[in-house]
Amino acid sequence: MGQAVWTGAITFGLVHIPVKLYPATEPKDVRFHLYDRGTGKRVRYERVTRADEAPAFEPPPPAFADEGARRVERRREAAPVATVAAGPVGPEAIVRGVELPTGELVTVTDSELFSIAPERSRTIEIEEFVELAQIDPVFYEKSYYVAPVAGRGAEKPYALLLRAMDAAGMVGIGRFVLRTKPHLVAIRPLGEALALETLFFADEVRSPDELFRGLSDVAISEREVRTARQLVAALATAWSPSRHADLYREELLRLLRAKPAAPPAEPFEPADTAGIGDLMATLRASVEAAKRKTGAKTPRSKRAG
User: Fold this and answer.
1) What are the b/e assignments for 92-121, b being 16+ CB within 10 Å?
2) How far is residue 51's CA from residue 45's CA, in Å, rounded to a whole number?
3) Dist. CA 115–CA 107, nearest whole Å
4) Coil, strand or helix: which one is 246?
5) Helices in the chain by DSSP H: which ranges?
6) What is the pLDDT of residues 191-207, one digit of tens each?
7) Does the predicted model carry a pTM greater than 0.90?
8) What average pLDDT score do residues 25-29 get?
9) For the segment 12-23, what is each residue's pLDDT rounded down to a tens digit?
């Protein structure tokens, strides 16, 4: 199952159930790295500024930057592009910014975000129970398995909550903070276990009204409806996830297994440029010293007769 992503407790009324959360899904996408065909080296990405891009706002003076106060940045209307330096940007120099509907740019520091960040939840309190059918699947975001913590007396209240909700056809709605993000959640029976679904908030789900205006005015006869229902009944079957495999991923894996592996590169040892420079300097100094020594000597004259 892997490592739990959260450890805490579910509470409803006075019942306290120590639990752990485990991801219920595991993406199987094939992920590629990027390489330079000419050199065989891995392509990396850097956070950099561009010399041909004008600044979005007037940088604050160092004293203001140290204060970390929220501010609305004044945009540059016509910044001289030639004066903008280009190069890598270190983490300490990066500031987050959001453009407002008015067009103004607001920047915020990490310390400001930390000051309003929600505290990590230790419990998920079930605030209400609703019928599962009332929650449209469009609200489901990510699924987790809820497991009772062993040795903490969690098994009995866990099984009690599971069976009670299963018998009533209800799910529990609550809230908690996972890592640094608040979540609305639905806790529901899933076979012999509990599952937790993180839900999109109401304002995160788009309304389809603007996309499908006029459908209610389309004229459809009862005969057409009956024929369509017959087609639906002819194709009806029990849901079996195993019948719906990712055919593209399987084809991609077959392609990768059939291809020969890229030839490994020759062992690469970086040249000790510092050592070479020192050696060359030493050799040059030795040559100069030898020349001076040779020039200092007076050639012996031959004795006459």
Assistant:
1) eeeeeeeeeeeeebebbbeeeeeeeeeeeb
2) 17
3) 15
4) coil
5) 62-67, 110-116, 155-168, 222-235, 247-258, 273-296
6) 999 999 999 999 999 98
7) no
8) 91
9) 988 999 999 999
